[in-house]
Amino acid sequence: MGILKIALYLILAPFIGGFLAGIDRKIGARFQGRQGPPLLQPFYDLFKLFEKQSLVVNGVQDFFVGGYFIFILFTGCLFFIGGDLLLVCFALTLAEVFLMMAACSANSPYSAMGSQRELLQMMAYEPMLLLTAIGFYIATGSFMVGDIAQSSVSPIAYLPGMFFGFLYILTIKFRKSPFDISTSHHAHQEMVKGITTELSGNILALVELAVWYEDVLLLGMVGLFIVNMKWWSFLIAAAVCLLAYILETFVDNLFPRVKWDSMLKSTWLVTLVAGGVNLLILTLVH
Asked: Which residues form a coiled coil (predicted)?
């Protein structure tokens, strides 16, 4: 069963991630009064990137991008086979470190600035990410995703503040405005493409593919708040995941990008108030 889950994640996640990227573009186009590209446009772009020649800055950059891709796959597989949620958080952080080091290895001011901002983003969302894992443990008595998914009551009943805080940091993880400071798919980014400026061809395609895998993983963590031992809870969780992604897309198109200090202050405030208070109450109740 574990091998089947891994196979399903590796095969289906890119299709789900690419389709969600197409929905994102459609919604963004509608906000600007345009028809927008077809839903399958992200797949066309990805295939085009794989066909293009890569301009390699240095050999170590390819190594770090490969490490980023492998650790994203490892993290997603670990999550969907019901592994340790705390290890999932650590592995996801390690994947981001590989991407940041790939940007640092290039002799480019835009890439270097993007990697510095990526580090600031990690400082912003990591406390809430770890707090969420701890909250799941206190609410269900286990760090194992499989055990959490088989709880008698959906974890969101005990973790409403954690759920709000996790949705807040998803804006950073999805690289959407107002927190798309290290790189962005919008044209208003003053650093060109920031952390991915020096990536091209199939190397850039590999990063884009890893982002789709990561998006599905993050939405899976959203669904973990909803699922329980009842089979129909998985259908509700899938609907909540879709609504969460659409909400993030709306936020992306409605709010202007903020400076890094505003991102840190607001994220830590949400972590302290929503996550910290929820954790305190949960500890007292249990």
From this structure: none
